[in-house]
Amino acid sequence: MIAYLDTHTAMRLAHGRPRIGREAEKLVQRADLLISPMVLLELEYLYEIGRLTLPGKDIVRKLEHELGVRQCDLAFADVARAALDEKWTRDAFDRIIVAQARLNGLAPLISSDEEIAEHYPRTVW
Questions:
Q1: Is the separation of the CB atoms in 14 and 121 below 8 Å?
Q2: 8-46, pLDDT tens digit by residue?
Q3: Domain total of the chain
């Protein structure tokens, strides 16, 4: 089974503050964890604006090493086409992250974001 991490979940796990929901914790323990490349980009953006102290690539490396997290390799053109249907948000990061999980067999997405949960039925927290 695979599951995706959204950006904020990735940040929490990488910074050793895994205050995540009980169901999310179970999924982290048993699933093969993936991130959209958009998560890497958003992490880097947050670093550039001073909201993170580590660059995105360092956070992703830490997650790879500690939790076996991998970047999803679905073709970006396919993910972008799928994101066209995510009209519920103007946030390009969320659109791509949700589209990637949806495109990959409606995979679970570990996220505490209430707006994502409202629009993506496989959100777990």
A1: no
A2: 999 999 987 678 999 999 999 999 999 999 999 999 999
A3: 1
Q: Where do runs of H (alpha helix) occur along 1-125? A: 7-14, 22-30, 37-48, 56-67, 76-83, 92-103, 114-119
Closest by CA position to 97, among listed 53, 41, 26:
41
The whole-number average pLDDT for the span 52-64 is: 97
Domain coverage including residue 91:
2-124
What is the pTM (predicted TM-score) of this model? 0.95
Q: Is 70 in a helix, a strand, or coil?
A: strand
Name the token pair of 125. 């927290």
Q: Are 123 and 96 in contact (CB under 8 A)?
A: no
Q: What is the pLDDT of residues 90-107, one digit of tens each?
A: 999 999 999 999 999 999
Dist. CA 100–CA 82, nearest whole Å: 8
